[in-house]
């Protein structure tokens, strides 16, 4: 498959995973609201299930900020709940104001680290299904894939410097096209080599998320029938 097609598929999978994560939160929150009258228990359950991913997410921010010499403050790894139990974010790292480029790299850090971990877990899953791991190890790898995939997405706070970066990249792209520059063929080969395993594991991740959403949806429907209440 051409590198451009692989890149397009990669972007589509990112959008899909982001939408699936939102649906997972919705199903847990909705079921919690039906049972307890509040979304707080559902959000807390979500935060506990995905706590390892939240820790990796926030540590990624912190490590890159320290490398780029941006001062950091308090690190939180539990949800910030409003008065009515609505989750604003699962965790955070306080950082001082920096230039757009360093802010962009700090915000992007969890996504890059998450992709790297997913590739490793994908290799472990492939080896495990071939007989290299016992069943509980395979289940642990599957859990890791679901946790990382739902924790590596870039939050609204992490995207605050993106308009500046998009403008910069647009200018670079315009100059690239205007002067009819071209990349060496090896660049496209390298891009294909990187994207192929990433797309494979992200496709598997999307499938696992769909299975989880299906289970949570079924649970919510059962609770709706028992409680005679609905989520609108």
What would a concise description of this structure say?
This protein has about 230 residues and is mainly α.
What does this structure look like?
The protein is mainly alpha-helical. The protein contains seven helices and two strands. A two-stranded antiparallel sheet has the order 1-2. The radius of gyration is 20 Å and the shape is globular.
Write the layout of secondary structure elements.
Elements: H1 3-36, H2 40-49, H3 51-67, E1 72-76, E2 92-95, H4 100-132, H5 135-151, H6 162-178, H7 185-227
Antiparallel strand pairs: 1-2
Helix pairs in contact: 1-2, 1-7, 3-4, 3-5, 4-5, 4-7, 5-7
What spatial order of strands do you see in the largest sheet? 1-2
Care to count the β-strands? Answer: 2
Q: Which residues form runs of ≥5 with pLDDT under 50?
A: none
- Helix percentage range: over 70%
Average pLDDT works out at: 85
For the largest beta-sheet, the strand count, sense and barrel status come to: 2 strands, antiparallel
Number of discrete helical segments: 7
Task: Give the N-to-C terminal Cα separation.
Answer: 43 Å
The share of residues in extended strands comes to under 5%
Structural class: mainly alpha
Instruction: Write the element-wise H/E pattern from the N-terminal end onward.
Output: HHHEEHHHH
Tag the structure with descriptive keywords.
232 residues; mainly alpha; two-stranded antiparallel sheet; 7 helices
């Amino acid at each position: 498959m051409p590198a451009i097609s692989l890149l397009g598929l990669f972007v589509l999978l990112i959008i899909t995973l982001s939408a699936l994560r939102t649906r997972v939160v919705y199903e847990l929150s909705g079921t919690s609201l039906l049972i307890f009258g509040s979304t707080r228990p559902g959000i807390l359950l979500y935060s506990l299930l995905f706590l390892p991913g939240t820790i990796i997410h926030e540590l990624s921010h912190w490590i890159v900020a320290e490398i780029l010499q941006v001062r950091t403050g308090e690190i939180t790894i539990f949800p910030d709940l409003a008065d009515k139990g609505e989750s604003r974010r699962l965790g955070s790292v306080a950082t001082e104001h920096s230039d757009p480029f360093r802010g962009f790299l700090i915000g992007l850090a969890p996504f890059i680290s998450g992709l790297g971990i997913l590739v490793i877990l994908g290799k472990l899953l492939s080896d495990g299904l071939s007989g290299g791991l016992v069943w509980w190890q395979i289940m642990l790898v599957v859990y890791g894939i679901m946790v990382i995939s739902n924790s590596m997405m870039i939050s609204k706070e992490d995207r605050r410097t993106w308009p500046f970066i998009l403008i910069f990249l647009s200018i670079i792209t315009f100059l690239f096209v205007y002067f009819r520059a071209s990349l060496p063929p090896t660049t496209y080969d390298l891009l294909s080599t990187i994207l192929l395993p990433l797309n494979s594991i992200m496709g598997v991740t999307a499938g696992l998320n769909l299975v989880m959403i299906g289970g949570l949806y079924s649970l919510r429907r059962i609770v709706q029938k028992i409680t005679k209440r609905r989520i609108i």
